[in-house]
Automatic annotation (TrEMBL):
This is Uncharacterized protein. One of its GO terms (molecular function) is zinc ion binding. It comes from Elysia crispata. GO terms for cellular component: cytoplasm; extracellular space; membrane. Residues 48-216 form the Aminopeptidase N-like N-terminal domain.
Amino acid sequence: MVLTTPLWALIMVMRFLLMCCHDQASPPILQNEGNISQNNIDALKNTPCRYVVSLWPNVTTKTFEGILEGLIKVEEPMNYTIFNIADLNIKEIKLSTRDAQNETIEWKINQLFETTATHSLTIFFDELTPQNRRLQFYFSFSGEIREEWRGIYYKSYYVNGVERRNVFTNGYTLGIFPCVYQVRHEQSIELNLIHERNLTVLSNFALQENNTLTSGAIARLNYYLAFNLTDQNLKVTVFKFKRIPIQRFSFAIGEFAQMAKDSKNHTVKIYAPASQIKMAKYALNQSVKILNFYYNYTDNTLNPDLKEIGIVAAGNVGGYSSEGLIQMSPENLFYQPGVSPAELKHKVAFELAYQIAKLWFGNYLFVPSAFLNFALEGFAAYTANQAMASIVNEQNAENRYEEWFNQVMEDDSLAATQGFHGPKLANQKTQYNPFGFQKGALIVKMMERTVSSKKLQAAIQFLITRTPRQKFFRELSSFYVTIDRIFL
């Protein structure tokens, strides 16, 4: 018997209504596990959050490029709802909880979702006791992610009557931890940190819907990073990465230092390849005293035997300084055994210039307010993107670069009309123009495209003579031989 389309539609509607009614009575998934205890809910509302909810992809599914792009909504302390998962061809969802005894209970739901529908999946936990406070909840999806779902989404939830935001990002961010939060006291900041097993590759954690990196996006990173703190007098932040774009990594370091400004000591420990952390200290304010900085240069993989990589910062951390990036001496920032200060200075100068270039002209245009401390509105994102697109994509890249460089960069007044200007510093005593940084970004970006070292040298010399930050960019003039060796 073949059902007609209207009859099939009617059956589906009735089925949907029955499911909705059933949802009101008991959870459709864990209905045999008992209802939520109101006493547990009331207790959780009056105590700190005691459990972590994690999302992990099915690592065996090659087509799964990230976790589910949708929204996670925390309606109650023990009620987690995932919705807006339409168009994800989910073949199977595996739900599992792990209690303090590492016993795993799994539920498998086999359902082929209609690509035009929006589905809700609600999971209830019960009997959450103090002895079982690290209950974790794992998801495993099999399907493909839609590119247009990329972005950061969040919903509010409440702990102790205080609103917390649960961030759900995309890309290679493999975990979500809505109960990892910071508690702000009058004179201190307590960081409650997740277990380091959940620290993994974070690729797009700081991208908002407009693809602009902001300090607000960085601040929400504290929901992801770090480790269980019980001693309120100890301020520790732990990063453990296999790889991460260093500019966002740097901002995260600075953000945690900023958050610890009311404490006497703040320790930042980083576990990552040495090449990935060299720029991290540029995000720290000058008022932070760098006590030590050490890393293992020989091992570029993350493993249990990797030596500790750490930045220990102590002192009262103030706001970010746009001048601090320039005033800090490169040879004083880094220590590398067996490398002379002069050679190290050149390496650091190159690294800094190259990272600035990636900040300005990466896949997205990053305008890091925490890094250079100037307004987003002062930068012509569209102009710069269009110009660089025409430079990079066309065959006559060098000619187009020279044409645009001479037209825009040589005339400060013309550059200002296109949005290349900066605000006054906080002290209102000095007019700070980040125009020099933009020229530096263009120069270094074109190092990858230039085929003539003579053109490269001329461009750097032009940059030095034109920039209002001559002291900083003189550092660039002495290492173009190194750049030639790397790029050309």
